[in-house]
């Protein structure tokens, strides 16, 4: 049991470190370093104290930092970078929730395996979806359309995507019926 | 019992969706694909939680033993879960009252079950303080896939657990002055009905045939009968001052007094005396003296709900009926002496010639410790001096006065009991 807790704590620590160090791979700008340290510190403090809001805040800050770094360094689009950062972010958020359970509950054998299976399934699906998205986005401008048309299409597509997802979440959240 | 479950959104949903929006905005503003890819796993997790809608079916039973315990005893709780279908990671939480302690911390368990599997979870609960506690309230939270939409259920196997005050065995016995003819542990000097052998004497008219001592009669060719000593018992009344209680919820003078009362009641009932209880508050409540195990549980049940109730009334001890406060009864007065209304009762009892022992619970012991050890010691010493001054008259009349200032509710009483003396009557 103690080994499980230590293992999960190490895993979360590694994820936090990875998440905060991503931007440093591309830029050594002072603002990026300060944001990186802030992100890492907030994330560590959030999962140690069991405050998910802090973890999410550090996630948003890290996302902003990563975007900023990529804009500053003018790197070519990198699908693996984005996906690995995304899976790290998911591991950090999901892991902090699991860690809260581990701190308060006695864990019977088989639980961690079940959790890991779900995480692997979502990571695999994310990889597939990411590759499909990149293929779509990369091939879209080569279809001969105008650049401004592609840009408008992207924005409309993103808005539609977010809107449909919001509606789905809203619809599926109205389920508190007693069965 | 097949349970009804309710699906609820966890707070993570809003966090995930917020990050998703941020990623899309950053992606659009920076014209980079990576921010969108970063939040893509969160989108997949959100969709996964909505599309996986398996509802596990399982039944649950809960048993508690024993339902009557004393402070510090362990109550065992057994939760049995039987899965009809495979159950994904599920949290079972037995809600324990805030006063209780769960030594192993196993009242919250995370487990997975295979189809048809049955598992029994066991944990122990310790109640450090007397009271009636409801056990058997269980909560389950099933996590199908991610934690975003757990299935929640609540079960009520409510059973009331009576936790009685701790009973401390007394090493010595303080015999009362006045006894009366009944079954009991005190042996009279006169012959009569009883169990203790007194001797044999020649048969006289009216003696019962079953008392004939056949061996002696055959030897002497004359009827002899066996004589026994009379058995006697006494009335013991415990007067518990519920006017004031000092201290915290965990340690207070009233709890110490209640433990002392329970210990005295158990001790004298074991010796077959008749024991009664009087709660001396603004209004008196009482239990008339009686013997036996049933009376012990009556007293313990009465002590279970003992609490201080604020009142301006002064209870008149003279109004307590003689069947509750029988003449000649040995009275144990357990008090803090912090409310002066108890002085009236003590002087009344003294004037009526009752044999009584005054057990004073020191508030200095249960009060939260001062930052400086010397301050608390000085406070305790001052309190003791003040009490000595107030109790001078009672001590002069020969009444044993005991100051209790330790965890053991009757520690100070041992010296009085071990002397085994019968103090002089007041009149």
Structure notes:
The complex is a heterodimer of chains A (179) and B (427). By secondary structure, chain A is mostly helical. Chain A has a domain at 2-114. In chain A, 80% of the residues lie in helices and 1% in strands. Chain A contains 6 helices and 1 strand. Chain A has helices at residues 2-21, 30-49, 52-73, 79-104, 111-139, 147-172; one strand at 106-107. In chain A, helix 2 packs antiparallel against helix 3 (52-73). Chain A is globular and about 60 Å long. Chain B is of the alpha/beta class. Helices cover 28% and strands 33% of the residues of chain B. Chain B is built from 10 helices and 17 strands. Chain B has helices spanning 12-30, 34-51, 214-220, 253-270, 293-304, 341-351, 363-366, 373-390, 392-396, 413-419, and strands spanning 6-7, 58-65, 68-70, 74-83, 87-94, 108-113, 118-126, 131-142, 151-164, 180-202, 224-233, 235-241, 274-280, 285-290, 330-335, 355-361, 401-404. In chain B, strands 1, 3, 5, 6, 8 and 9 form a 6-stranded mixed sheet that branches. A 6-stranded mixed sheet of chain B has the order 14-13-12-15-16-17, with helices on both faces. In chain B, a hairpin with a 4-residue loop joins strand 13 and strand 14. Classes of the chains: A mainly alpha (179), B alpha/beta (427). At the A-B interface, helix 3, helix 4, strand 1, helix 5 and helix 6 of A face strand 1, helix 1, helix 2, strand 5 and strand 6 of B. Strand 1 (106-107) of chain A pairs parallel with strand 6 of chain B.
